[in-house]
């Protein structure tokens, strides 16, 4: 019995970590492939991700008896609408920042600065107090984010090895705009976290229930939240229809690639006959050889990014439902470090110059160290005492 429980626990953790590291790291990789060739495709990327998650969740939340309808919700629609507005804007801003010459490495590290925003909002809006260790850890994270941001603030020299004043000025303005967009996304993401925390506290009893009112099995609460946040965001893309059409047109103009997908009958034939017979059969059969599909090459990373985003989101929410927020923070920090390593190793030539990488790696190390120290310092009962004082 004990061995079975241990194996089940190991299998559950292996599945969760595989979803996170496999899905999220692959998402970062495919995202960099898209934005390196189409940096202005932020709206299209966001639309594809939201559409993919929505379609993936439909079978779980649509009941067909006695007529097609959505399952009863655990959480009222109004709290979802607030989350939808914030999540939609944050997602658009994060993807739009690539159009302003923000390298993927800087993008990853800068978004790790959400710890700073969460602390400031907690202090200003909720009156939370933090220990000196927590404050020092956040300052360490801040220093790392600033160092990383500065490391890519100057453009790379051109083929002649020189930079003109106009080139430097244009790059600086674009880069500053991109950093401003990421900063706004961080602040709004902090507000989103506070709204989600309050919502889960207000509907804790409903969230803990695993069955719907009609007695049928109901998906976990985290799947409901993920589904409705993406589903209710879809109508908002109507206001971006011109941008989406333009970005689709640009993607369609990318060089075509040939995809050869055999039909099921051809696969069966290949596995049930010897190679000579198979070759003869395919050449004389009306089915013929697999017909190659012509597809603009830009769609391939977009499709892969959408699929891996579904896996990534599912893995993060699965982890959140199983462990404490401290463990979630540590796992996601390690995941971002792995994504950063992959980005620099595979796309380093598109990032900052070699002499600037020291600054970027130092900044990444500071962010990682500060986040881990903050997580350890959060074990102290400072915030718990604040909550108790407020109740009294």
Automatic annotation (TrEMBL):
- One of the Pfam families matching this protein, by short name: UAA
State the Gene Ontology terms under molecular function: UDP-N-acetylglucosamine transmembrane transporter activity; UDP-xylose transmembrane transporter activity
Entry keywords, A to Z: Membrane, Sugar transport, Transmembrane, Transmembrane helix, Transport
**Membrane topology annotation:** Multi-pass membrane protein
- Identify the domain of life: Eukaryota
Matching InterPro entries: EmrE-like, SCL35B1-4/HUT1
Q: Which GO terms describe its cellular component?
A: endoplasmic reticulum membrane; Golgi membrane
Transmembrane spans = 7-31, 43-63, 75-98, 104-125, 132-153, 173-195, 326-347, 359-377
Q: Where in the cell is it found?
A: Endomembrane system
Q: What is this protein called?
A: UAA transporter
| Annotated organism of origin | Phlebiopsis gigantea (strain 11061_1 CR5-6)
